[in-house]
Specification:
Length: 114
């Protein structure tokens, strides 16, 4: 029973991360790509909120992925176990890839700000 609860918690954490990315995307459209960039104070506060939100999403997703991998003893880097690829490893691998894309987005937002 602990197995399904852990998967449910992991799914909920990924869902929360995706909601956070959606909110960050809307804020990026509002404060970076729209005419609101001409208002310096609003633009600076908006960009700061976007950066804080993206950093929090990356932290939240990474900690939950690591917790999920540790709880279910999932190791995607085990070289001797490449032939035994299962859906749990796939979920963990895609979560790390999602974090990588979030880091790229964060880098581009920071680069656009300064």
């Amino acid at each position: 029973m602990s197995y399904s609860i852990s998967i449910g918690e992991f799914s909920k954490s990924i869902q929360n991360s995706c909601i956070g990315v959606s909110v960050a995307s809307i804020l990026i459209i509002l404060f970076i790509l729209s005419p609101l960039t001409s208002y310096t104070l609003a633009s600076m506060i908006g960009r700061l909120v976007i950066i804080i939100l993206l950093v929090y999403i990356i932290y939240y997703n990474t900690t939950n992925t690591n917790k999920f991998a540790e709880d279910l003893n999932v190791n995607i880097w085990n070289e001797g176990d490449w032939g035994n690829w299962n859906p749990l490893k796939t979920n963990v691998a895609w979560s790390y890839i999602f974090n990588l894309f979030l880091l790229v987005l964060l880098y581009n937002v920071v680069k656009k700000c300064w």
